[in-house]
Write a structure and sequence with these properties.
The complex is a heterotrimer of chains A (351), B (390) and C (289). Chain A is mostly helical. Chain A contains 15 helices and two strands. Chain B is α/β, with parallel strands linked by helices and 390 residues long. Chain B has two domains: 200 residues, Response regulator (Rossmann fold, 3-Layer(aba) Sandwich), CATH 3.40.50.2300; 143 residues, Rossmann fold. Chain B is built from twelve helices and 16 strands. The radius of gyration of chain B is 21 Å and the shape is globular. Chain C has 289 residues and is mainly alpha-helical. A two-stranded antiparallel sheet of chain C has the order 1-2. Classes of the chains: A mainly alpha (351), B alpha/beta (390), C mainly alpha (289). The interface between A and B is medium-sized, with 30 and 33 residues. Chain C: One of its GO terms (biological process) is amino acid transport. Chain C: It is found in: Cell membrane. Chain C: Pfam families: BPD_transp_2. Chain C: Keywords: Amino-acid transport, Cell membrane, Membrane, Transmembrane, Transmembrane helix, Transport.
């Protein structure tokens, strides 16, 4: 997808009845283009710098970014508060690792199978949980499911290796001569995951399905009056988002060479939710900005993780109370106002 | 979220590293500085093992540097440590190991005494050309296999320890029929495989083995299974927190044995309830620091307190896990005349016997053959005996 | 065999009582404020530490228990005034904010209390024999205390003026305000009350089990399960569900497998949500609190 068309989409979205000034429109377009350029530069940096350290950090950030993007589809666009993303991430890792090591399947076959398994499980869990509006049911049930999955992984010793985890000694098979056994190859794999999830979310966002999800988020009753099958839409979003988490999990296994039940811990999901809120829930760039701040900054500033988590906690609270739209949400709103003729920076409260 | 939070202790480590680095820089006579990697759980539930172990390692390198380093091929060599925190979690351990391996010049890595993070990090080390010196139980399963050639475990295997521990504790406690209660983990299964036959060989009946969920706090229901079975002893593991809870809850529930054999940690859980139980025997895989009178140990204790500024605690004896091995490694470097030919260094280490604070020797496969101490609490009296290596 | 069943049942009631003490706080706050407070487990943990510091300082268990409740009530009051009152009835906002509070409290606690396991001396030691059965004395005391606390809590809601105002708010916030209930004040009191119960639960936990900064997730998860099982907002429902869960765990661990202990609760929860989506005791929908 070209940068230009995406920018155009974003602008169209923000379009309003008041005709914008040509000049301002261009500047806004430029900001979006710069955002994409920054993203491309960041993505290329670890490869170009050819440093093992940057490759490793980049791999982890790309994986977390992909997770945040896929969770945003469900939380941000569909407005459904599920706390099971980490569980599906872990499910994907375990399922693919077992399919490869025990069943002897090639990695590239194990990946879609693991996604299929995750999708089926998500459908079984999601159907009863999503029947009710309000979302607390979904939050609680997915929370319980996640913990149960972790317990099963920790206790089904014979299959999962128990609390000690599972060693992963394989690499994905080369594709078109491109090998994944080196640090740069694994980074490319993680970056590919990020791009794939971004592409999927972008496609969904622009589709009838995506607009339906946003309608459900805004008002379920109204959405059902508009002829949207609310339950089916919500379920589809949950299944899709969970399957994406599983997909990212399948590459996590060979990257980390090791998986343990801790991977399914609910704290992973909580951190992701924090990332989304920080960056801007329901925006396209929010998950990326949030990931970069939460996982990237401390890596370079060398902040002790203890402070990072305390600061993140304070940030989450402040953001929810003061700027519920998050960083990307505020930027988007500012730009839109600017395009309509308001000044770019002003302390006036935006409605 | 159980992340780096043991700030004061971590700060102590950082301070130790700093003082040590300062000492290195003042000694400009060194021709070469060799960097050594260290991965340990400095925070989280396993830090009780790994923190003293890392302090002992740092202390050994500090002592070598203070003496001006070692001489390899006529060149003075001093050491510098790069330390990473595994936070008691497997995934963080892999991350920490990755960070160590990013330094191409680091060829030797020390650390990790618990199998969860240990196996995770060791998997990565087995793929890399580094000499890995660790302490965790499941490392035994990697030794002598492909990928395990450059690995050394500095603690005796359970198979070796049990040979002396089982007869000794059965004799001291005078037990005839015991139950085994362990967390539901891989390690526990290998423990049962090793100890149960030896117990039976020593004339002890083992009618019941139970595994519990590792995060259990309420042991009442599972302990009920041991009630009224005519048991006179319990075999427990694998860490102090769990064992303390079990000991306490046996004294509360009643109808349960008052004698314990403990595989895994210190004597603290037994000593805490010494008025309510009859006997408690534990393994001291290095040296008894609290109740023994070995002069070498006394000297080490003084040096440890001076180096870390900390008092001796029930877990301090883990500080000896890598301590002697550091000197063995230094000696091996001098012998082979290289600081980065890890294969030759490993080979030299495996063919020497070292009389340090512990008496250390390694097998061809890298398994420790060291003497251990066995701690005993019997009717309120505490003592320890030394069990020879073979 | 029969004796064993009774013993296991009592073990289950004891541990279930602890779960129930945690759950009534979560349930009350959810029923009145519409906030699912994930940080409730952290209040339990802090309550346990307050008790620990009081007991080790030599003030004894009873003062420790009282101050754990008082300190948590105050902390709850502060949190409600500073944060939660701005997002009343916003399910997602409340949930997210409480996740943020978890991060702050847990990491600060780990830094200042160290992750070491702590214990304090319970008022009763050892075991007692009753009719040929063996019980832990302290556990029986805890069970008795739980019954007293929960009954007092229930009577307060049923009989006192304030309790009636709280229940009125649970049924209809606007209606309650119209008939003269000081909605803002009462909401703050509800939060303080729920937090005090968390403090009590923490002190009782600490008298039986080791305390760590990371102990919160266990009680919290149990509390959630019970809140749902009890019918999202029903205090008596949560209490009964608590005892049921304790019994299920004890019997599961005793007669099935102890290595799947926490799993029994989740299975119970998922089954209940599928079969009785309004909770086991939430069928009427009238008597909310």
């Amino acid at each position: 997808m070209s940068v230009k068309s995406e920018t155009a989409v974003m602008i169209n979205e923000a379009a309003s009845e008041t005709a914008p000034g040509e000049n301002r429109n261009r500047i806004v377009q430029l900001v979006f283009a710069l955002g994409w350029l920054a993203f491309a530069v960041l993505l290329a940096t670890p490869i170009l710098a050819d440093s093992r350290y940057l490759l490793h950090v980049g791999t982890m950030i790309a994986l977390h970014g992909a997770l945040a993007v896929s969770l945003n589809l469900l939380l941000g666009y569909a407005g459904q508060f599920a706390i099971s993303h980490g569980a599906f991430y872990g499910l994907g890792a375990y399922a693919s690792a077992l399919l490869v090591t025990s069943a002897g399947l090639p990695f590239w076959l194990a990946m879609p199978l693991a996604m299929l398994i995750a999708a089926i499980v998500a459908a079984i869990i999601g159907y009863p949980a999503l029947r009710y509006t309000g979302g607390v049911h979904l939050a609680l049930l997915t929370f319980a499911f996640g913990e149960l999955a972790r317990l099963i992984a920790a206790n089904w010793d014979g299959l999962t290796g128990g609390p000690m985890g599972l060693r992963v000694l394989y690499f994905p098979e080369p594709v078109l001569g491109f090998a994944f056994s080196k640090a740069s190859g694994l980074y490319a794999l993680a970056a590919a995951m990020l791009l794939v999830t971004m592409a999927i979310v972008l496609l969904v966002k622009r589709s009838r399905f995506g607009r339906g999800l946003v309608a459900i988020r805004e008002d379920e009753v109204l959405a059902s009056f508009l002829g949207i099958n609310v339950l089916r839409y919500k379920l589809a979003a949950y299944v899709l988002s969970s399957a994406m988490a599983a997909m990212i999990g399948t590459v996590y296994a060979p990257i980390m060479t090791f998986i343990s039940p801790e991977l399914l811990n609910v704290h992973e999901t909580i951190s992701l939710i924090g990332v989304l809120i920080l960056g801007g829930i329901g925006t396209f760039s929010g998950p990326l900005i949030g990931t970069l701040i939460f996982y990237g900054l401390p890596e370079f500033l060398r902040i002790a993780s203890f402070y990072r988590l305390v600061i993140l906690g304070v940030l989450i609270i402040l953001v929810v109370l003061l700027v519920p739209k998050g960083i990307a949400g505020v930027i988007r709103q500012r730009l839109e106002m600017y395009r309509r003729g308001y000044p770019l920076f002003s302390w006036r409260k935006l409605s | 979220m159980k992340t780096g939070a043991w700030t004061n202790k971590a700060a102590a480590i950082a301070a130790a590293t700093l003082t040590y680095a300062a000492a290195t820089t003042t000694m400009a006579i060194a021709d070469q500085t060799v960097r050594i990697g260290m991965v340990n759980s400095l925070t989280g539930p396993h830090s009780g093992f790994d923190l003293p172990a890392s302090e002992g390692t740092l202390m050994a390198f500090h002592e070598i540097n203070k003496k001006g380093g070692i001489t390899v091929n006529g060149e003075k060599v001093t050491f510098e440590i790069v330390s990473e925190d595994a936070q008691s979690k497997p995934d963080v351990a892999v991350n920490a190991a990755q960070k160590i391996l990013q330094n191409d010049d680091i060829r030797i890595v020390y650390g990790i005494m618990t199998s969860g993070p240990g196996m995770a990090a060791a998997t990565l080390f087995s793929r890399s050309e580094v000499l890995y010196i660790g302490g965790f139980t499941l490392l035994d399963t990697l030794l002598g296999k492909p990928g395990g050639e450059l690995m050394i475990r500095t603690l005796n295997s359970d198979a070796a320890v049990a040979q002396s521990f089982v007869p000794q504790s059965v004799k001291v406690l005078g037990v005839k029929k015991i139950g085994i209660i362990l967390p539901n983990e891989d390690v526990s299964r290998s423990i049962v495989e090793t100890y149960k036959p030896l117990l039976e060989k020593a004339g002890v009946e083992v009618p019941i083995v139970e595994y519990f969920q590792p995060s259990t706090t309420d042991f009442a229901p599972v302990l009920r299974k041991f009630q009224n079975q005519g048991l006179d002893g319990l075999f427990v593991g694998t860490n102090d927190a769990v064992v303390e809870a079990i000991v306490r809850q046996t004294t509360e529930l009643g109808g349960l044995p008052k004698k314990f054999m403990y595989r895994g940690g210190s004597g603290a859980p037994g000593l805490k309830y010494k008025d309510q139980i009859e006997g408690f025997v534990w393994q001291i895989l290095t040296r008894d620091l609290e109740f023994g009178d070995d002069p070498k140990v006394q000297e080490w204790k003084k040096a440890y307190t001076a180096f870390t500024g900390k008092e001796i605690s029930p877990n301090t004896y883990w500080g000896l896990v890598y301590y002697d091995t550091v000197f063995m490694m230094a000696k091996a470097m001098e012998q082979v005349g290289s600081t980065d030919d890890v294969e030759a260094i490993a080979k030299a280490m495996k063919s020497m016997t070292y009389e340090g604070v512990r008496t250390m020797r390694f097998s061809e496969e890298g398994r420790a053959r060291s003497d251990i101490d066995i701690g005993t609490l019997l009717n309120g009296k505490i003592s320890s005996v030394r069990a020879s290596a073979e | 065999m029969f004796i064993d069943v009774i013993q296991t049942m009592t073990d289950g009631l004891m541990i279930g009582g602890l779960y129930a003490t945690v759950a009534v706080g979560i349930t009350l706050v959810f029923g009145i404020m519409g906030i699912l407070n994930f940080a409730h487990g952290q209040m339990v943990m802090l309550g346990a530490y307050v008790a620990f510091f009081f007991v080790t300082a030599g003030y004894g268990f009873w003062l420790g228990l009282a101050f754990a409740m008082l300190a948590m009530a105050l902390l709850g009051l502060v949190m409600e005034r500073a944060v939660f009152r701005f997002i009343l009835t916003d399910h997602m906002g409340g949930l997210t904010v409480s996740l943020g509070i978890i991060l702050i409290i847990e990491n600060l606690a780990a830094a200042y209390f160290t992750p070491d396991h702590r214990n304090f001396d319970p008022p009763l030691k050892g075991g007692v024999e009753l009719l040929g059965m063996q019980f832990s004395a302290q556990r029986l005391l805890v069970l008795a205390l739980v019954l007293v606390l929960v009954t007092a809590f229930y009577l307060f809601l049923q009989k006192t003026r304030l309790g009636k105002a709280i229940r009125a708010m649970g049924q209809n916030r606007t209606g309650a305000a119209l008939v003269g209930v000081q909605v803002g004040q009462v909401t703050a009191i509800v939060f303080a009350l729920g937090s005090a119960m968390a403090g009590a639960a923490g002190a009782l936990y600490g008298s039986l089990f080791a305390i760590t900064p990371y102990m919160a997730s266990g009680p919290l998860m149990k509390g959630f399960i019970l809140t749902v099982l009890g019918g999202l907002g029903s205090v008596p429902g949560a209490v009964i569900a608590g005892f049921l869960l304790g019994i299920a765990e004890s019997f599961g661990s005793r007669y099935l497998s102890a290595s799947f202990r926490d799993g029994y609760g989740f299975i119970l929860l998922i089954a209940a949500l599928l079969l009785f989506p309004r909770g086991l005791f939430g069928f009427s929908g009238k008597e909310k609190v």
